[in-house]
Amino acid sequence: MSRWPTRALLLLALVAAPAHTSAHEASAHAGDSERLPMMGAAPDFTLISQDHKPVSLRDFRGKVVAIAFIYTYCTDVCPMLTAHMASVQEKLGSTFGSKIDFVSITVDPERDTPDVLKEYAQNFGADLKGWSFLTGDPAVVHEVGRKYGVIAKKAANGDVDHTLLTSLVDPNGILRVQYLGVRFDLEEFRDDLVSLLDESK
């Protein structure tokens, strides 16, 4: 029976995808047992962490990285996604922070200052040794989101309507898979993180 895959292997050509992305690579099904496809080099960025320090994607080279886009004033899907990631963080044990890292980038940088993000992270039990919450200049943040296929638009009431994509980047800095929405399979998510780590051994 066909269903919308929980793991969305997306072509990002419409939003400035990496040049190496191909339709063949992006057409694998969620149930395939083969290695996850390579979607091209993950777009680099430099933003500011919850500790007021610059953080770049290249800082994570050698690790598997999950990149999510959220904002702290969100009352529905963002807290759900962050809670899901926190539960997977616990299941990763000692590999979290040493070999696997999470990055959450705000889509509301005007309100999500480093201090606001730090409080948000603590409220969800995020282990900040392996989880960075990033903000920055709004134009820069917007461009980073666009490169990852995330479009964000702020409403008059302050809510931010945005694409919900969580991207996995391998230790070589290659974008491998994107999860669409918030109701994806957390075991699959964890297994994909571990499989990318195993590939690098």
Write up this protein.
The protein has 201 residues and is of the alpha+beta class. It has a single domain, classed as Glutaredoxin (3-Layer(aba) Sandwich). Helices cover 24% and strands 22% of the residues. It contains four helices and ten strands, in the order ββββαβαβαββββα. The strands form two sheets. Strands 1-10-9-4-5-6-2-3 form an eight-stranded mixed sheet, with helices on both faces. α1 (77-91) crosses α4 (186-199). It is globular. The N and C termini lie far apart (36 Å). Mean pLDDT is 85; it is low at 1-32.
Give a brief outline of the structure.
This protein has 201 residues and is α+β, with helices and mostly antiparallel strands. 24% of the residues lie in helices and 22% in strands.
Shape: globular
Q: What's the Cα radius of gyration?
A: 16 Å
The SSE order reads EEEEHEHEHEEEEH
**In CATH terms, what is the architecture?**
3-Layer(aba) Sandwich
- The overall strand count is 10
CATH classification, class level: Alpha Beta
Q: Count of DSSP helices?
A: 4
Helical amount:
10-25%
* Uncertain residue segments: 1-32
Domain tally:
1
| Strand order in the largest sheet | 1-10-9-4-5-6-2-3
Structural class by SSE content: alpha+beta
Mind describing the biggest β-sheet?
Answer: 8 strands, mixed
If you consult CATH, what is the topology?
Glutaredoxin
- Taking all residues together, what is the mean pLDDT? 85
Strand content: 15-25%
For the termini, the CA-CA separation is 36 Å
- CATH homology group: Glutaredoxin
